[in-house]
From TrEMBL:
Keywords: Signal. This is Uncharacterized protein. The keyword Signal applies. It comes from Pyxidicoccus fallax. Residues 1-27 form the signal peptide. InterPro entries: Peptidase_S1_PA (IPR009003), Peptidase_S1_PA_chymotrypsin (IPR043504).
Length: 400
């Protein structure tokens, strides 16, 4: 057999294997909740679905109310007696059957979910409509165009605004936002440091070098996790100065930090992952206190969008530190070292903290990392507070 013949045989074999896998997957497809509800309707015509209300009761929606007891019996047979709670059941009228709504959802889904900003489609038994979730108001018009073109009964559809649903890790989108999550500024990925109060203004802190111009205020927008989900606008970013104790040819500050006014909900929490390079969130930790200037020999944690949660032992405390490849120098900053990599590009702005149970004490924000040994550099919270005029926003909605 020639080389091309062997390749053709391999490709054909692969196609057969894929075909077998596909057919088997279809044959073993599990029944969904909607499948079982359709079975209930086939037994009890006029069934419009069910849900549990705020009183814990099972609500059975029926086109013909007199058939509700028969529907409850069918529900019990298929879902088990535990589906009818101790609080009992009630019935509500339905303008549409469950199968009508399911058919409408299936008709709309391919076109609606291909629209930018579309989040979900669902048979909403509570409203007895098909719900279409959109991530922002602008998507409503696109959805309405599709509904009009398909001549859909408008009363049967409800368009609701919800946030985007992104992967559940530090690079995903979250509301409210918290320390340790990815933010995007024009041309850069960084990490949100911590929620903060500047007088009566709520916002958050990240690095000055994450803004459009390092030092000085240009109203840089910040998005989480990516544009266009805007969560903050740069409000305070002191300039760098030369001369005096600043090394010749360099410009200096006490911290690489900037304060962003909040344009979205902010949480007094810091996220944590299970370890280095694991970006899946394992805990949301409450910020309850702070340490303005930690000491040499203490071990601190940080959570960043690139390397997750890592640690380092403070090897150099209150050092004057040059930022490599830039003219920037920082007074009284810290370097924490580790035997393994504990920082990388994109971790800029990460909260640096001590953890006790499910709470943390903030102690700074990361601005750089290096190797030989592995290390990350951070500005102490005392310097950040002094330069930006902020205090951390802590559990209970207060500054601490």
């Amino acid at each position: 057999m020639t080389r091309s013949g062997r390749a053709g045989a391999v490709i054909a074999g692969a196609a057969l294997c894929l075909g077998a896998w596909s057919m088997e997957a279809e044959a073993t497809q599990p029944r969904t909740l909607d499948d079982v509800l359709l079975e209930v309707e086939r037994e009890v015509p006029g069934f419009g679905g069910m849900y549990h209300d705020a009183k814990g009761r099972l609500v059975v929606r029926m086109v013909h109310a007199e058939a509700a007891p028969v529907a409850v019996a069918a529900i019990t047979r298929r879902f088990g007696a535990e589906r009818v709670p101790a609080a009992g059941w009630v019935t509500e009228p339905a303008a549409r059957t469950f199968s009508q709504l399911k058919a409408l959802q299936e008709r709309l889904t391919p076109e609606v979910l291909s629209l930018p900003g579309a989040v979900f489609t669902d048979v909403d038994e509570k409203s007895n409509r098909v719900a279409i979730g959109v991530a922002r108001a602008e998507a409503r018009g696109l959805v309405e165009t599709v509904l009009s073109r398909l001549s859909v009964e408008r009363e049967a559809v409800e368009v609701v605004e919800v946030g985007p649903i992104l992967p559940t890790n530090v690079q995903g989108g979250w509301t409210p936002v918290a320390g340790g999550l990815q933010i995007e500024t024009p041309g850069k990925y960084c990490t949100l440091g911590f929620a903060a109060l500047q007088g009566g203004t709520l916002g958050f802190v990240s690095n000055s070098h994450c803004t459009q111009v390092q030092g000085g205020v240009e109203a840089t927008p910040a998005y989480q996790a990516v544009a266009p989900w805007r969560v903050g606008t740069e409000l305070t970013d002191p300039g760098y100065a030369s001369g005096g104790s600043c090394p010749a040819g360099r410009i200096c500050r006490n911290s690489d930090s900037a304060f962003f006014r909040a344009d979205a909900a902010i949480s007094p929490r810091v996220v944590r992952t299970s370890g280095a390079f694991d970006l899946n969130i394992s805990a949301w930790l409450d910020v309850t206190s702070k340490v303005l200037y930690p000491s040499q020999g203490q071990t601190v944690l940080k959570t960043g969008r690139s390397t997750g949660t890592t640690s380092g032992t403070i090897q150099w405390a209150c050092a004057t530190v040059n930022s490599g490849g830039t003219p920037h120098t920082y007074y009284c900053n810290y370097i924490a070292t580790s035997a393994t990599q504990n920082g990388a590009g994109g971790d800029s702005g990460s909260p640096v903290y001590f953890q006790s149970g499910n709470t943390v004490s903030l102690t700074g924000i990361l601005w750089g990392s290096g190797s030989n040994p592995w290390n990350f550099a951070f500005a102490p919270l005392g310097a950040v507070q002094s330069e930006l005029g902020v205090v951390p926003y802590c559990l209970g909605g207060v500054g601490c």
